[in-house]
Design goal:
The chain has about 250 residues and is of the alpha/beta class. It has a single domain, classed as TIM Barrel, CATH 3.20.20.150. It contains nine helices and eight strands. β1, α1 and β2 form a beta-alpha-beta unit. The two termini are about 10 Å apart.
């Protein structure tokens, strides 16, 4: 089975389109799911045949798994979110490293591995995948620690759980390191989900930006990936036209 596509709700919720109409059009285009949807809209998504693909596992993202003192609060939040995910058949929860705040990458990596090893059994028992998100620290999230794929891959490799994977955000990693297709090919075993957006600007994935998304999607498909591709761009123009074009470019 080839991968399916989803839409990150936060990017389109202020488009001026009523939620029910937006969901109707998203489904009509061919999208199969929604991401980061507020719980009050879960029933509406179900009515439109859209699966909720990801929700946040804990927050804020600046306070994360790279410190032992954060574990108890994160565990408590994850417990609630895992129950929510089971109730609504949500396959993934997003988790975060947190900011460096003076901590070395090596120390933060070791503690992130330690903490994820402790909480991985909760995800395994629930049948839900924890996605450690790669974010850029250059433009959008200054000081965020999990900002390069080698750091994240090593965390996932050492945690060694089928329910702990990377969220490889193509937009963020183009800003930080580029070499997108080679990285996907080399790291696919550790990646559980993908996000898109145009670079620069986090806007439409059209001909005005520097990434060619169709060959990127072909590379993802060649790895055997069968999850979801999350469209997480903020449109500058017509949001529906942007969603149609993004779906076309990524429908390989």
């Amino acid at each position: 089975m080839a991968f399916q596509q989803a839409v990150s709700w936060w990017c389109f919720e202020n488009s001026g389109i009523p939620p029910a109409e937006l969901m109707r059009v998203i489904r009509e285009i061919g999208y199969a799911g929604l991401e980061l949807l507020p719980p009050e809209f879960f029933p509406m998504a179900a009515d439109h045949g859209l699966r909720i693909v990801t929700v946040g596992g804990h927050g804020p993202l600046t306070v994360g798994l790279n410190r032992r003192e954060n574990l108890a609060a994160i565990e408590a939040q994850l417990g609630e979110q895992l129950a929510l995910a089971q109730k609504w058949n949500i396959p993934n929860l997003i988790v975060f490293s947190g900011n460096r705040d003076g901590q070395s990458d090596a120390e933060g990596q070791a503690i992130t591995i330690e903490n994820l090893r402790q909480i991985a059994p909760l995800a395994e028992s629930a049948g839900i995948t924890l996605l450690l998100e790669l974010l850029n620290s250059k433009v959008d999230h200054p000081d965020y620690m999990c900002d390069r794929s080698p750091w994240g891959v090593e965390v996932i490799r050492q945690v060694n759980s089928p329910r702990v994977r990377l969220l490889y955000d193509i937009y963020h990693m183009q800003i930080m390191e580029g070499d997108i297709i080679s990285t996907i090919r080399a790291s696919s075993a550790y990646i559980g989900h993908y996000h898109t957006a145009g670079v620069p600007g986090r806007n439409e994935i059209d001909a005005t930006q520097e990434l060619q998304y169709t060959p990127i999607m072909q590379a993802i498909k060649a790895t055997g990936y069968t999850g979801y591709i999350g469209q997480e761009f903020v449109p500058r123009g017509d949001p529906i036209a942007a969603l149609r074009e993004a779906y076309r470019l990524c429908n390989v």
